[in-house]
Amino acid sequence: MRLLxxxxxxxxxxxxxxxxxxxxxxxxEGGAATxxxxxxxxxxxxxxxxxxxxxxxxxxxxxxxxxxxLKKIDYVLITHFHxxxxxxxxxxxxxIPVTKFLDHGDSVEDNAGWxxxxxxxxxxxQSLKPGHRIPLRGVDIRVVAAHGxxxxxxINGGGANALCASAELxxxxxxxxxxSAGFLLSMGKFQFLDLGDLTWNKEHELACPENMAGAVxxxxxxxxxxxxxxAPQLVWAIxxxxxxxxxxxxxxxxxxxxxxxxxxxxxxxxxQLHWSEVSAKEQNAxxxxxxxxxxxxxxxxxxxxxxVEKNGKYTVTNSRNGFSKTYQAR
Length: 330
Known about the structure:
The chain has a nine-stranded mixed β-sheet, with helices on one face. About 50% of the residues are buried. It contains eight helices and 20 strands. The termini are far apart. By secondary structure, it is an alpha/beta fold. It has one domain: Ribonuclease Z/Hydroxyacylglutathione hydrolase-like (Metallo-beta-lactamase, Chain A), CATH 3.60.15.10. β8 and β9 form a beta hairpin.
């Protein structure tokens, strides 16, 4: 019995004592919920998935928090106030406490997600501005975009972007997507960029005339892989090694985005939370790097995890099949 108890507790103990930076993508089926846990055990949850009568998304986020050995979440960052990003928050707070809430500033839309967030975050809310840092020890997390603005000077080796000469723009986006808070996370050589649902023209401002974010190793594909985002002048300038797309079976995963990612200089792999039913088979990644192959009704909510070592090596793991691949940060 004693040996059995030790074997059951070992995975939790090992995670709590981990020397890696761990990033979990909970499957919220076309929403967003990215949990970041530092080597010291501090945590940042970026978005909370959809509102659901069965609390499906909140439960999946809570499961990731349990896997990480968390008893509380230090910061919840809501990139913007659409339901697929803020909708799971109310249910999640019944499962695990949160210390502080971060956001891009007041919503430009008068919607239910915004009203609920205001109520839940009262007295514990901080609005971010470009250039602000999120104070987690052991990593550097710098806000590069928020509330329609961007940082004023290039960071991370960014600079003049020749791709801007041929760049095309789309109609301005008046929704809260364009207000998304986005950040660059750095740990040693490793760089991770998450821009929420920032839309095309705002991506352009982040990329042109100068690439403000530099080159990154890991890129969370903006806006679930919808073609309202992923402007080539940004994606090709940041040159990700690995992209992770938090799409749903029929949300995101658009063919134009797959084409942009595949043409990005230095791209090695695109991992997906779901097989995309809206794109052709040959445009989807290989099955081993897709967490969920089935439609929503049959989905088991498999996740993707990245573990980053201090030497810059990072390993991506698919919870559905246990497949892992290790990359070296540049």
